[in-house]
Amino acid sequence: MPKSKRNRPVTLSKTKKKGREHKENIVNSIREAIEKYDSVYVFTFENMRNLKFKEFREKLKSSCRFFLGSNKVMQVALGRSVADELRPGLHKISKLVRGDSGLCFTNLPKEEVQRLFNEYEEYDFARTGTLATEKVELKEGPLDQFTHEMEPFLRKQNMPVRLNKGVIELLSDCVVCEEGQPLSPESARILRLLGIKMATFRLHLTCRWSSEEFEVYQEGLEDSDVESS
Question: Please, are residues 206 and 217 in contact by the beta-carbon 8 Å criterion?
Fold first, then answer.
């Protein structure tokens, strides 16, 4: 009887004992999921928000198992070649685990999975370095949306302000951010105060594997990425 690949020892060198054990536990968990679920999806994400993703995962916990973390560890668990893949064809999705990626194991119909991922998006405040989606400019005059206690903080954000009879006054027009330009720490803070959300947390399916078929969803992936051993 052939020896089970799932029980094959995995070597993850150059790590401390605790870190190595953690990685080996992830590998074993992924390999157990491969046995349990019919399909495996690779997905990418943009503007990750941990709390939002936790809510999404919680919503699907009865039908899906998600993994995020080291791409290398996930690749090892799936098998990076025909020789070490747990099931035929898994090395193909292993090659597409790169960048900001994760794995989703499920028994849901593929049409339902595609709908869930395509429809999902959550808006949030942008962080430093995010490209502004629009120009935001504040005009000279009173800033009635802020209380007078905010005046010292606004000055620290390089805003030309002063208190005038208990009301914060902008001394000149102030461009908070320009469309397409990275947000500075000060710009990100001001946008949050203004309640302007410029970041959208999205999930994108890259590919799907099942015992019957392998599908690539994202355009631009080279054939050699998935066909070579």
Answer: yes
